Amino acid sequence: xxxxxxxxxxxxxxxxxxxxxxxxxxxxxxxxxxxxxxxxxxxxxxxxxxxxxxxxxxxxxxxxxxxxxxxxxxxxxxxxxxxxxxxxxxxxxxxxxxxxxxxxxxxxxxxxxxxxxxxxxxxxxxxxxxxxxxxxxxxxxxxxxxxxxxxxxxxxxxxxxxxxxxxxxxxxxxxxxxxxxxxxxxxxxxxxxxxxxxxxxxxxxxxxxxxxxxxxxxxxxxxxxxxxxxxxxxxxxxxxxxxxxxxxxxxxxxxxxxxxxxxxxxxxxxxxxxxxxxxxxxxxxxxxxxxxxxxxxxxxxxxxxxxxxxxxxxxxxxxxxxxxxxxxxxxxxxxxxxxxxxxxxxxxxxxxxxxxxxxxxxxxxxxxxxxxxxxxxxxxxxxxxxxxxxxxxxxxxxxxxxxxxxxxxxxxxxxxxxxxxxxxxxx
Length: 427
Description:
Blueprint: E1 5-11, E2 15-17, E3 23-33, E4 44-51, H1 61-75, E5 81-87, E6 91-98, H2 103-111, H3 124-137, E7 144-151, H4 158-170, E8 174-180, H5 186-195, E9 200-203, H6 209-221, E10 223-234, E11 239-247, E12 251-254, E13 262-266, E14 270-271, E15 276-284, E16 290-303, E17 308-322, H7 325-328, H8 333-357, H9 360-376, H10 380-394, H11 401-412
Parallel strand pairs: 2-17, 4-5, 4-7, 7-8, 8-9
Antiparallel strand pairs: 1-3, 3-15, 5-6, 10-13, 10-14, 10-16, 11-12, 11-15, 16-17
Helix pairs in contact: 1-2, 1-6, 3-4, 4-5, 8-9, 8-11, 9-10, 10-11
């Protein structure tokens, strides 16, 4: 019988050396839609939240947003529902949730968004609450219930913004975020998207706004698997140090909360032909020679089109203990490639934290190390950005807002290029 979701499990080393020391082993779990995924993508219940504060008028950002939203309106299917909200000091529902039978009228409303008075500040919470209300009013488990937030500035009540989005996600509403320019809080937008089964985008050139909206719409319209989760079940004496989401974006999950030796990682809804993966750092005890089951990985998911909930597929994780050093030295290049890219992400993240704490020497060292690896991987622009920030920090200046965002978003996307970037050089 064909499987709706495929689960692959790979280890950095299939065999480890028999010694008295504990061993570090990387486990990569990948999920993707299978041939039996069922009917096509579900209809949308979409809310678009647009920042219309005063800063959006700079660099023609609002003009590009208008073009992008008009494109979205044109691409909506007859079965899709859509609402559009503008916010600044206050929020206003420009188009209530519903099927857009008259798309030309809807586009005219967006074209005339300048005439809508919502103040000039940035209170994203009001936009979020209005959008979630619109989606909840039309909520259906058979639809993709989704919110997209675009902003270019810092907002008041950041913690409440995050909390409201997480509450919506618990009720089945996913959230994606789009940050434009250098003045928004990337940690807030990344945190919302990562915690709410969505994606986060950074736009440094306003001319890219229409393409990002097109990519996001195409993505949510092609979702075929909902609410996927990866459950890691550890055998006795096996530990897990850290975990990372690695595709489509790298996100540090830190130390997982284990309950009865089990932990669950929530993934974003799976689009057709999409791979999502999670990397676990496992710690293994010393053992005698032999083959041992160290963990089980289970993927659980919903298929609303087939009225299926909590379907699952699992894989046992087996490791060989051997006295042969040659056998224990054989690595899995696919896993180690991911580990190297995650290391680059961690280096720049740690460097920026150290710079903020005043440890300029260590920060510059880490950034230059990251730049070297980025150059080896063919990422010259990101490498140059890391070197520029290292130079700024070394001279006593703070890391630039633009540079921080380019590094944060750029290194998170490295795993999207795994089929294109070269493997690390071999000695």
